[in-house]
Amino acid sequence: MDPVLAARAVRERGLVGNADQGGQRQVTVVSLESWSDAAAELGRTDLDPRLRRANLLIRGIELEESREGVLLIGDVRLLIRGETRPCRAMDEACPGLQSALAKDWRGGVYGQVLADGEIRVGAPVSWEDS
Q: pLDDT tens digits for 66-103?
């Protein structure tokens, strides 16, 4: 995964340049706190979050049990469709990582873009009031 300062989101498509376009799994999101908890469980404070291969890394937002919630990231509205379950590739990156990420939705979430916009590093992140 290559870090960028900004990404363009397109309604019903996903992130410009991303392999996943359309469908329900347009964008994947992981929280820094969940990643840190998984890394700490493994005794590895040096694990790079890029190993998770999520599109977005956020902080300060709880993602567990957030299905059907709308996450606001800057101007972008993202409908959360479900939990992103970690695969075997996580254990190839670090033994035990798949299991550590499988707890409490630590592997993050996936969703659909509801509104076009730009996501920039440092953009505010919150849940839309229902």
A: 999 999 999 899 999 999 999 999 999 999 999 999 99
Q: For the chain, give every domain's residue range.
A: 6-123
Please give the residue that has the higher pLDDT: either 11 or 22.
11
CATH class of 6-123: mainly beta
Residue 108 neighbours by CB under 8 Å, 6+ apart:
28, 29, 30, 31, 34, 52, 54, 63, 83, 84
Burial readout 65-81 (b: 16 or more C-beta within 10 A, e: otherwise): ebeeebbbbbebbbbbb
* CB-based contact 51:94 (threshold 8 Å): yes
